[in-house]
Structures are given as C-alpha cells and as structure tokens.
Design brief:
The chain is mainly alpha-helical. The protein has six helices and no strands. The chain is globular.
C-alpha cells in the first residue's frame, strides 16, 4: 500500500481542483449560476463515489461478518440517492444538504474505517479532502 500512497494522494487531492476551480469561476466570470450548478453536480458525484468505496470494501472482503458486509452494501448506495435528491432541490437551498452529506459520509467512513482497520492514512486523507470540498462549496456559495 505504501508504494501506491503517492498515486492515492495525487488522485485524491487532485479531486479538489473542480471544487476550487468552480469557486474561482463563480467569482471571476459571468454565468455564475452555471458554475454554481457545476460545483453542486460535482459534489453530488463525489458523494456518490464515496458511497461506492463502501460497496467495493464489502465486495473485496469475503471474510467479514455478514451484518457488516450488508451494512456496507446498503450504505454504498445511500450517498448516490441522497446526492441525487440534493440536485433536485432549488439551487438556493442545495448547498446546505450537500455540506451535511459530506459530513455524514465522513462520519460513516470513520466508523467503517475503525471497524475494518483500514490504513490510518486513508482516514486522515478523507478528513482533509472533506474539509477541502466543504471549503470549495462554501467559497462558491459566498462568491455567488
């Protein structure tokens, strides 16, 4: 795992570029409403991706207790559905639920990380990526 750490971190932190890029575009360029929608759409996609990680963990570990595997499977689809519901909300109120979903996915990932004894760097990275996503969303909202 250590040999892949630079790739994991590069891809993870690179995923923050659209958050900060959209916030910048909202502030500096016309069509702010488009860029706000773009950041909300990206946030919902990332939230969906975070759920999919749980699905992958359940599939890759055949030896875990059935109840834990099922919890991972159920949680694995919940963020996608909840993120989609957020996109159906009016733009003016959409960011609040998206922020809550980022915090909820972090809380659930923290729980599963401890239950599954995942590498410590992963949770540390998840915390900083969640913080980055939240800052990007708030910056775009304030710029709008």
């Amino acid at each position: 795992m250590r040999s892949h750490l630079i790739v994991i971190q590069s891809l993870g932190y690179g995923g923050l570029i659209p958050f900060f890029g959209c916030a910048f575009l909202v502030y500096w360029f016309d069509q702010a409403e488009f860029w706000v929608f773009a950041i909300h759409l990206y946030a919902a996609l990332i939230i969906s991706f975070l759920g999919a990680i749980s699905w992958g963990l359940a599939l890759s570990n055949q030896d875990m207790p059935r109840s834990l595997r099922e919890a991972l499977f159920y949680w694995g689809v919940a963020p996608a559905i909840l993120g989609w519901i957020c996109l159906l909300l009016p733009q003016a109120v959409r960011v609040g639920p998206l922020l809550v979903l980022f915090l909820l996915t972090l809380a659930v990932d923290t729980y599963f990380s401890k239950r599954l004894a995942l590498p410590k760097f992963w949770l540390k990275m998840r915390i900083s990526l969640t913080f980055g996503a939240i800052v990007g969303l708030i910056a775009a909202e304030l710029a709008y």
